Fold this protein.
Amino acid sequence: MSTPGPPTKRRVRGHLVRRLSQLYVGLAVYGASSALLVEAGLGLEPWNVLHQGLAERTGLTIGVVSIIVGAAVLLLWIPLRQLPGLGTVSNVFVVGLAMDGTLALLPEAHTLAVRIPLLLAGIVLNGVATGLYIAARFGPGPRDGLMTGLHRRTGRSIRLMRTAVEAAVVVTGFALGGTVGVGTVLYAVSIGPLAQLFLRLFAVPSASKGSTVVATGQPRGAILRP
């Protein structure tokens, strides 16, 4: 039985193109899915509750606020000694731009007959996007990195760190005017299973061996937000 030789330049290049494509498509779809949840008006994912609340108070768009908050969270990586990847930095900008762009194109939704499908589509697409960008393996989003960094520095579980951070984010965002509702709860209980499903579906084979690797070095407990 022959052993596989070293990967050719074409294979390596194709592998990189696939990973980059997954990264940027995933981040763009993530921003678009978040826009669907905003337009549905039935409750947002935790960090966007904060983003929307800050947008209400500052007059900035929710996408611009998302970029500013993402950059601020990334600065918190410094004392936590976290190292960002291409995906981490791209996440800060692409998600916010895609969110604002999608909101500019979406018509207003007034009836539940429209808002409920928007909510469900937003949650499912969010799971698809999470699987795409994490499976590309270019680094976690700034908010996930904050949770894993706190886990490393404090020794507390990722689940506890995530719960504490997102609870604080939701409470603060709600106090500022962000939308909390049935969509927030539905997102919380469904995004984990959806993300794991799409992580397996979009796993990128290794360029050298053709084996499938899913989100190397990315703790499962942190897979919830780019």
